[in-house]
């Protein structure tokens, strides 16, 4: 299994596991610290995926692209994919990303529904 795939699975697992805590810790005094810490961890995993994917492609990303992925991953990760993989391979990566994202969104919605309607 490729290292970038492992990072994506770790990211999926962390988001999956952290979703209940978003609701359980919502009224606690340290909720903001939890959100900040979990956001930093998720950004680190996204950046680690980005670097490992670039190594697998044999690409050395510029410092500007690295900073962009850290600050605005939602814009710079697709830019990186299109620039270094082309449209066809980027589309396949995007479909994989949606396959990763849609179950998490559904899980979040179901958890929210059961949490507030229980």
How would you concisely characterize the structure shown here?
With 118 residues, the chain is mainly alpha-helical.
Architecture overview:
The chain has 118 residues and is mainly alpha-helical. It has one domain (3-117). It is built from 4 helices and no strands. It has helices at residues 3-24, 31-57, 63-71, 73-117. The model has no long low-confidence stretch (mean pLDDT 84).
Main attributes?
118 residues; mainly alpha; 4 helices
What's the arrangement of secondary structure elements?
Blueprint: H1 3-24, H2 31-57, H3 63-71, H4 73-117
How far apart, in Å, are the first and last alpha carbons? 40 Å
- List the total number of helices: 4
Rg over C-alpha atoms, rounded to the nearest angstrom: 16 Å
Helix content: over 70%
Mean pLDDT: 84
Structural class: mainly alpha
Q: What count of domains describes the coordinates?
A: 1
Largest sheet: none
């Amino acid at each position: 299994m490729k290292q970038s795939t492992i990072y994506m699975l770790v990211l999926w697992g962390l988001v999956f596991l952290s979703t209940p805590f978003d609701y359980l810790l919502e009224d606690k005094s340290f909720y903001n610290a939890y959100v900040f810490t979990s956001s930093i961890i998720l950004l680190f995993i996204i950046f680690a995926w980005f670097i490992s994917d670039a190594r697998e492609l044999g690409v050395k990303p510029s410092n500007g692209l690295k900073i962009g992925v850290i600050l605005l991953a939602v814009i710079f990760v697709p830019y990186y994919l299109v620039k270094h993989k082309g449209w066809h391979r980027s589309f396949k990566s995007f479909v994989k990303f949606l396959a990763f994202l849609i179950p998490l969104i559904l899980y979040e919605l179901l958890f929210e529904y059961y949490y507030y309607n229980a």
